[in-house]
Structures are given as structure tokens and as C-alpha cells.
Amino acid sequence: MSSVTVLCPNARRCPVKVTPGMLMRQVLEEACLRHGFEADEYQLQNQKRHVDLALPFRLSGLPNNATLEMVQAAKVALDSKVTIALQLPSGSRLEEEFPVSSTLFEVLQRFSQSGGEDLTVCGDSLAPSCSYMNRQYTGPLELQRTTLASIGILSGKCLIRYQRIALSKEQLDEIAARIASESAHKEAMLAAYAEKKAENEAREKLEAARLARFEEELRLEKERKSAEAATEEPMETDNQPAQSTAPVFSRDLLGSPPRNNSGWSFDAPVFSTAPVSQHAREDRLSTLNRLLHQENEAAATVAAVAAGPVAPCERRAVIFQRQSDGQAENELSDEFFEVRVDDLKVRQKELREEVKLTTQRALVPSKYIKQKNRERKLAAYPHTVIRLPLGNEKVVQLQFLSAEPVSRLFEWIRNTTSRNAQFTLSLVNLKIKESDTENFVDADLAPKSTVLDEANRMSSEWLSHNTVFKPYTAVVEEDERTTKRPASTMPGASSDIAPPPQKATAAPRWLKKK
């Protein structure tokens, strides 16, 4: 069964089970009865769009599990009238005005008087029936308990079709049982309706009292400020300066910690209306100037280091021949792709590191982390090897310092080629730009690119000066645990048991190359 959720004015969610033929008016009434509200004072709204209460759920355009909101509706007087056109089986129509509180049975009685035919009589197993919005209301019992307002007819003109339907005794009993079940369900909700309504009224009174008290406080505050302004005006016009004896009010909303007259604290308010000695004010300004000077010196030092020229190294250009992929790789067995316990442990360790990076990250800006990682890369990768493929057969290998600008790579290519041809360099899908300010670390070209095993062996001496790069993650490390694991007290336990063998590498078996 489908259901919708109704947001009530008391911030409660009311789930209501609906059927395709259930009217949206019934959904509103059930939500109001559960939480003590008047159904005539509210209207349903979905995504700022009013829902027609006369439509069934099937034709309302609402999806399953939709969220509806109860909003204030324009009050409709119970004595307001609507125009009803009754279409008879012969095709003729009768039209009259009725109040919205009238039942369908009363409507048929009125039309019986004007039409000269009793439309409410039941005979020969025929029962009167009225159809509105693809829904039938059959039998005297259902017609007597259904009002125009309950089926969504509140204003304007509406057409109701009248006909007589042959019903057996079992069908009449089924209709009576359904009406009794709906009445029992409504009475069960009415039992708690009075209590919920009293709670809503008490809450509204409390909110009104709080609002009145708040408005009264605002009024008193305005009167106090106006009185203070009126008393300060004659003092300003006085020629002789006089010290005010009124208490000095500080603009700090929270209580500040105790401060030293000659000290400085970033937690203390800088601009305050409280009296401060001249000596303390001078100390604060001097301390602030000293901090700003240190910050400027640090920024200038970093800029000088970054902009400092780096002497070029010997390129040691070497040309290699590409190896043909003539050897076919052996097919891997299914055991190679099996996930073992060691692989799961490695993955668990990686997940723990990811959680640690997420939950224990320090409150530092990303720009600071990026700068720290750049400094660590420059310290870990002082040397860089660049390999340039020439066609499909040859590769040129060059050596650079990681701190050198990328423009020197372009200069070497221009000096080597015999003609001034236009060219571009790219690493995978990343286009390398010629820049005098970015080095090989900034361009993500350090420390090397693997092309041939022979080239790796010849460049190993140049790259041996590099170390392992550990990125700066800004993770707050926990204090080391001082407690050790207690020794085993089980009989027969021996301390000579060898520890489990250590794994040579952390990579899983299916990732290793054969």
C-alpha cells in the first residue's frame, strides 16, 4: 500500500496510508485528527504547489512516499453556497444552489421536489447512486454521511451524475460493513483528538506569551536607549569637560578572561569601550607590529627561495632503442586473482589510514598543506629524469634538477633541433606549459617516467640521491599508549615462540608482476 508523509504545524511527521481512490481531503482529515487540528483551516501543499483536495490520490500527480505540508487555508464559511448540476439517467440536468454542509442525500431530496420524482427511494433491489470525480457513493447510508465539503466541493459549479444501481443483499451488507469500519476508525482518532487539540492550544498560548514578553523587552530597551541619548546631549554641549560617572558598558557579548595591563592576548577584545592605560596600549601596538613584521619576513624568505636561480646540471643525453613486444605474456591462473587473508589485512590497513585522514585532520588551510607537500617533494626529489619518445623506435633520456624551471626542457629541445619547428609536450593527457616560474615538481614531472628497463638502470645512479616522499596530511597523531599488553598467565605458555613471518611486500599477490 502506498503512503504519504504530512508535515504538521507542530513539526510532527504524520505518515498516512493511501489507496489509489482515496481523496486527498481524507488524507488531510486523518492527519488533522491524529494531531488535533481543524481540517477546515488547513490545506495540503507539495513543493510550494497546492494540492486539489477533491482529487483522488491516483489523479493528484503525487509520487509514492511524497511529503506534504499543512499550510493555512482561506477560511470557507459553512453557509457558503455552491451550484450543483444533477445529471439524470435520461440525460437531462437539474441545477440548484446548496450550502457546502449539505449531504448528498439532502441534495437528492431537494431535486426530488423540483423534478417531481423521488430520487432517494430504494425498490426492486435498486439503490440511488451519485458519481463525482470517478467515485460512486451508493446507498442511503453512504449518501447521508457524505457532505459536499467532504468530497472537495467548496465553491463554484460542479456536475454530479445520478443513477440507480442494482445491488444484492450481500453488496448492501458489504457497504454497511465498510461504513461501520470507517466510522470506528474515525471514532478511534477522535478519542485522542481532544487531548492533542488541548496540547496545541497550550502551545499556542505559550508562544503568544513568549512573543508578547519579547516585544515588551524590545520596547523597554528602546525606551532605555532613548533616555540615555537624551541625558548625554546636554553633557556634550557643556564647555567644561566633565568626567561621566555613569558605568561604562563594553560591547563584548561574552565575558572575556582576565587580562594583564601590559600583556597582549588574541582572545581579548582589541577595541573595547573599557578604559585602558596608555602604557598597555603602546605595548599592544608594538607586539602587533612585531608579529606583522615577522610574518612579512617569513613570506619574503619563502618568495626569495622560490624565485632563486638554480644552476643547470649536465644533461647526459642518451638515446635508446625501443624493445619490441614480441614475447607474449603467460596466461595467469585463477589462483592469481584469489583474495587471501593477507590481501584483506592490507586493505583493512588502507581503510584505517583513510579513516584516520578523515577524522583526525588538523584545522589547517589547504594552501598550507599544498605548500608543505611542495617543500617535501623538493627535499625528497632533488633529481629528475625526463624521457622523450622520438617516433615509435627511439627514446631520448635527459637529467635535470627538480628545482629547475620547466622552460629549460623546452630550451634544450630548441637548441638540439636543426629547424625552428613548433612543438608541444604532454604527459599522458596533461599538456606541459613552458614556464619560468614552475619547476619539475610543480609540473608533476618529478622524479622520473618509466619507459625502458635499460634506461632505468642507467639513470639509477642519478636518481639514487632521491628519497621517499611522504605527503603532509595534517593529521593529529594520538598520544602513544604507555600500557603494554599483559603477559599470558596460562600454564605452559612459552616466550620462545617465534613470531609470525613478516610479509616481504604490502602489495597483494594478484598485483605482482611475474
UniProtKB/TrEMBL annotation:
GO terms for cellular component: cytoplasm; nucleus; vesicle membrane. Gene3D superfamilies: Phosphatidylinositol 3-kinase Catalytic Subunit, Chain A, domain 1. It comes from the Eukaryota. Residues 8-70 form the TUG ubiquitin-like domain. SUPFAM superfamilies: Ubiquitin-like. GO terms for biological process: glucose homeostasis; intracellular protein transport. Residues 222-254, 477-514 are annotated as: Disordered. Residues 237-247 have a biased composition (Polar residues). It holds the Pfam family TUG-UBL1. This is TUG-UBL1 domain-containing protein. It comes from Nippostrongylus brasiliensis (Rat hookworm). The lineage of its organism: Eukaryota, Metazoa, Ecdysozoa, Nematoda, Chromadorea.
